[in-house]
Design goal:
By secondary structure, the chain is of the alpha/beta class. Helices cover 47% and strands 15% of the residues.
């Protein structure tokens, strides 16, 4: 049976991915799931986590339910599976009711849907819960599984719903996956997912080909240039805010580096273009916030530079780990100065606004969209963050942190997954459309134009351009948008208008702010946990005595690793050993020369200079003089009694 399973999964791997063999641990993880065992897989960034659930998902001949908080990653994986001729779909916050209903109906009524990706907040919706038992679910994959742990760096309460839906799917195995988890989080994940037995597969987080450097530097821009000149190849520069992405990219361009910038505030079309240009090598360096990198598997990244200190070691390890996935030598450099350390502590304090402030911002959000008490559940709105912050006189960090608490409380969700490109589908058949055109001749030519411009409108959502339709219709984009909205209201089409604004989704009905519940003990506990993570980052940056790789591995529970021999700490220690050895050799040479009696200083320097550099000889002579081992008078150097004693 085991042999048959191995043959089956190898055949699937070859058929859909073209690989002849699995990476380390992948096969063991897949077989564990196929044996029906709940499994936790810890694989570092670039370790091939998606293969671990996609291969068994295909082998089990049913539906694999994939739970992920990353909308962009869900979309990418669905598109990748479709390109491999595997039927897959996704449900996430912000989709229209019609779109969600269509996906769920396909999962319930067809047998060829193999993967359904859902964001965790969808798990408790009535539509999903009612239909879940009617889906042929054979496996549950939980991506970014650290989000279920209260000790994890990105705890998300909606993940707690996973244990509840398991009751509706008895006997269905769970595969939990994460790239970063401390030992405490590893145990908590399994308990919260209701594993009957602990079952962990963990690949060492050690990356022999990736060298870590922490460099104290005031002139970060020019240090970056020196790094890029020294290490040819593709790279990523991570910064904390969007403004810096553009500034640094322009600085690099002016200095002859093919660079571009990337952040979540760009429209989808622009982000895709920038990402593709970096992937294909047209752009050498991408400067980005942490919005960049999830799900991107570019193997030949030679350097990853952080110009700001990340908030957690988990985040740093994931981002740095995007370097050297081809197993060739790569570097991860963290540049910092004293001001950065102060900013990190200041940002931490700002990330925990008072409970009263959180309640105030919640009220402002509800008032902005005219949501009354006991209203608003599952409604979503395009949201102009800058306008909102200015209107209500809020601080940016205060607002962002309050929203995070409201998200973690399950009240709302702010999605910055922008959708610039509009999509369109005809909501009826060909015959019904012809009847509509006869009944509404004023719309006949416009609907025919849509059909001439885009194929597949009757069966699928198709990406459209209002500007292009306007050009063909000799009209304006504004009028085309109005016409499409009108047809949508008439029920003839389903029109999803693109936008450059993020979306705010209210997960529950509005409650009076006095009933908005944030347990002070939970609030305090989260702050304590966050402080520990901050302390770990500060310790990593400031500790120049222990190998960087050893520090990171110890944080994730690997306490028996050996020094890497390459990081800034190891390099400095090795240099010190070499300098000490040279120092000792010079000292022995000089003491041997002086053992026969006093020497003229110039003669001593000339004699020792046959083997050693003058500046090092001067340094050793100064030390010998300070320590009282030699005496220097009137240009004569004499070995003292203490010096003679030290030679014995």
């Amino acid at each position: 049976m085991a042999t048959d399973r191995r043959q089956q999964i190898h055949a699937i791997l070859k058929q859909h991915w073209g690989y002849d063999s699995f990476r380390p641990l992948q096969e063991d993880i897949i077989l564990s799931v196929l044996e029906g065992r709940d499994t936790l897989a810890l694989l570092p960034t670039g370790g091939g986590k998606s293969i671990c659930f996609q291969v068994p998902g295909l082998a089990l001949q049913g539906l694999c339910l994939v739970i992920s908080p990353l909308i962009a990653l869900m979309k990418d994986q669905v598109e990748n599976l479709k390109r491999r001729h595997v039927k897959a779909a996704a449900i996430y916050s912000g989709m229209s009711y019609h779109d969600i209903e269509l996906v769920i109906n396909n999962c319930v009524n067809t047998n060829d849907m193999r993967f359904l990706y859902v964001s965790p907040e969808r798990l408790k919706t009535e539509m999903f819960r009612v239909n879940l038992p009617h889906m042929n679910v054979k496996m549950i994959a939980v991506d970014e599984a650290h989000c279920i742990s209260q000790w994890g760096y990105d705890f998300r309460p909606p993940y707690l719903e996973i244990a509840e839906i398991r009751k509706q799917l008895p006997g269905v195995p769970v595969l939990a996956l994460t790239a970063t988890a401390t030992p405490e989080v590893v145990t908590d994940i399994q308990q919260r997912l209701a594993f009957p037995k602990l079952n962990v597969f963990q690949k060492s987080f050690k990356r022999d080909n990736l060298t870590y450097y922490v460099v104290k530097e005031e002139d970060k821009h020019n240090r970056m240039l020196r790094i890029m000149h020294k290490y040819p190849g593709t790279g990523i520069v991570y910064v904390r805010n969007r403004r810096k992405t553009r500034e640094i990219a322009e600085f690099l361009q002016k200095n002859g580096i093919a660079a571009d910038y990337y952040h979540a505030g760009l429209d989808a079309e622009t982000r895709d273009r920038k990402q593709n240009e970096w992937m294909n090598g047209t752009v050498r360096v991408i400067v980005s916030t942490n919005a960049f990198g999830m799900g991107i598997d570019k193997p030949d990244v030679r350097f990853v530079i952080h110009t700001d200190i990340p908030d957690t070691l988990e985040a740093y390890f994931q981002e740095a780990g995007r370097g050297g996935r081809d197993e060739k030598p790569s570097i991860a450099v963290l540049l910092y100065n004293d001001a950065d350390l102060k900013d990190l502590q200041r940002n931490f304090e700002a990330s925990f606004p008072t409970i009263e402030t959180i309640k105030k911002i919640y009220e402002c959000l509800c008032n902005e969209f005219c949501i009354g008490v006991n209203e608003g559940k599952d409604t979503s709105y395009f949201f102009d963050i800058d306008y909102f912050i200015k209107k209500y006189g809020l601080k940016v960090m205060e607002f962002a942190s309050a929203v995070q608490f409201l998200e973690k409380g399950g009240y709302l969700l702010l999605s910055e997954e922008l959708n610039k490109v509009s999509t369109l589908q005809i909501a009826c058949g060909q015959t019904e459309l012809e009847h509509f055109q006869q009944k509404h001749p004023e719309w006949a030519e416009f609907t025919r134009l849509l059909l001439r411009s885009y194929g597949g409108l009757f069966t699928n959502y198709v990406k459209i351009s209002e500007n292009e339709i306007a050009r063909r219709a000799n009209s304006t984009p504004e009028r085309i948008e109005m016409a499409l909205k009108k047809l949508n209201d008439m029920g003839l089409i389903h029109y999803n208008q693109g936008t450059t604004k993020p979306k705010l989704l209210f997960l529950e009905n509005r409650v009076e702010s006095r009933y908005l519940f944030f347990d002070p003990a939970v609030y305090s506990q989260r702050k304590v946990v966050a402080q520990k993570r901050l302390d770990a980052v500060m310790q990593y940056v400031s500790n120049n005595k222990v190998c960087r790789s050893q520090q990171l591995l110890a944080y994730f529970g690997e306490t028996t690793s050996t020094p890497c021999g390459q990081c800034d700490v190891c390099w400095h220690a090795q240099r010190q050993r070499l300098l000490q050895a040279e120092f000792d050799n010079i000292r022995q040479c000089m003491e041997a020369l002086l053992s026969s009696g006093p020497m003229d200083l110039k003669a001593l320097m000339n004699e020792a200079g046959r083997e050693f550099k003058e500046e090092r000889i001067t340094e050793v002579l100064r030390w010998l003089t300070d320590q009282g081992f030699v005496e220097l008078k009137s240009g004569q150097v004499t070995l003292s009694r203490a010096g003679r004693a030290s030679r014995k």
